[in-house]
Amino acid sequence: MTKLFNDPARFAEEALAGFCDANANLVRQVPGGAIRRHRSAAPKVAVLAGGGSGHYPAFAGFIGPGLVDGAVVGNIFTSPSAQQAYAVAKAADQGAGVVFAYGNYAGDVMNFGLATERLAAEAVAVDNVVVTDDIASAAPGESAKRRGIAGDFTVFKVMGAAAEAGASLAEVVRLGRKANSSTRTIGSAFHGCTFPGADAALFTLGEMQMGLGLGIHGEPGLLDMALPTADELGRELVARILAETPSGSGQRIAVVLNGLGSTKYEELFVLWGTVAPLLRGAGYELVMPEVGELVTSLDMAAVSLTVTWLDDELEPLWCAPAESPAYKRGNVASPAGQDDWIEAGGTVPGGARYSAGDDSKAYARRCVAALEAAARAVHDAEAMLGDLDAIAGDGDHGRGMVRGIDAAVAAAVGTLGLGAGAGTVLAEAGDAWADKAGGTSGVLWGAGLRSLGETLGDSTAPTPGRLLEAVNAFAARIQGLGKAEPGDKTMVDALVPLTAAFGRHLAEGVDVAAAWTAAAVEATAAAAATAGLRPRLGRARPLAEKSIGTPDPGATSLAMVFTVMGPHLANINQLAAAKQ
Ligand code: ADP
Ligand code: MG
Known about the structure:
CATH class of the largest domain: Alpha Beta
Number of domains: 2
Radius of gyration: 25 Å
Largest sheet: 7 strands, mixed
Number of helices: 18
Bound molecules: adenosine-5'-diphosphate, magnesium ion
Shape: globular
Distance between the termini: 67 Å
CATH superfamily of the largest domain: Dihydroxyacetone kinase, domain 1
């Protein structure tokens, strides 16, 4: 059980603040996570690890010379938002490039991918290394689908050492990917973890049971079996890892025997007593092995074994010195930039003023009114949307939409106050939505709104053609990112009829406001018709049968929001009239 907490919802936030205070000599907190306290003497590539909380020392515990430059810190077992990743990157970037390194989970891939696009658009050199070491999570032929677990550590260690030695961004990325493709992990769980405030573990096993093939987010093992002795478990883990020896690999290996939260170090050492001789017996030289907690899962009782096959390039990087709050190796030369305190990070353009055309500013006020109307509708529908999502999803769609739209309104109002045009107001509203909503729909809504805004721009009020283009850009972004097709039972099932109808009515010469209204009616009908569909994507997929007869929550809320925004966004003729 997790016993010590205040407000469970603030557990991750309070833990990060405490961690940064206790390790203030090495790290400093910035919006979105934490970065190194001291800037290196010469500009170097910034290696940024990231993911949800609940895995300490992963990931913030690895911030320091020889390891990572910063960590993007999400809520417990939840991907950080793209905005968080962007903000940490802006704080850590020294002009030599940024690389995000994280385990292979859909939310992380999407959010770090979005932050990457945004940084690249600002001409920051940026790339990603995705860790896929968990051999239990997909077959060898599908290794790109594998999850990232304790192998995160060996990959980050290699990347951190390479960046510290002055390697270029391309080189750090190449070495990180090489380390990943040489790394294999398998674990085994004895008891699930408990969320702060929850009164039961995420899964339980009988006293004499074990789950082989664990995940690090409270997922149970893939194969339940009788609890073995330490000796038997050691044999099982080593056999499974060696069965996946990379072809052409040598005889020198980095080994990590990892505890996941409440397996004692002594238990790990007993297990090591089997693992090490077996590996040596197989002809391997064990190079600087690690036994201890490196990637945990709250208080889960579990162990995992990681092997990284080394070569002349990887071995010196694995062995290089490092100094971080949770992990030290050798002596790191005192960084010459010791006294160079990094200015407070963050990307809020403090007091920035925007330049925008008067017509666009007038339309920006419409956009704010549209978002406010949407917020009222979403608040009223919160419980209903939650109920729809609880049938086969996780019940959080109403809450997520409320958090997203409230943040979007606040950002839009603030940005409007700084003199921005409609494009920037909507783009900032989108970023805030994605940052605060959580969940798949929040990422998609946020990115869609940003595209809508970018298409409208800040110079003039939209023409009907430009408004159609912007709504199409909204839809294209959501489809491009979420990869859902019509019929998958997602918000796309309301979105595609909406854009098609809006375009068709405009082409027929219908007035913009009437075209929007008619399109919203079609979207509402399409959302209702999703009741007959079976979900093929998202959290509802595993419970597809239960979902039949209930409309898709994301499609329902999308039709609702577009319906109430219409009178504000589509009355552009009136806008021109008001100006005259
Ligand atoms: P989560 O599923 O992460 O809990 P929400 O509950 O807020 O997020 O949103 C669920 C909705 O998100 C679904 O009803 C569906 O409309 C939408 N959704 C899920 N995955 C996708 C996807 N890949 N593309 C488009 N929409 C999606
Ligand atoms: Mg949900």
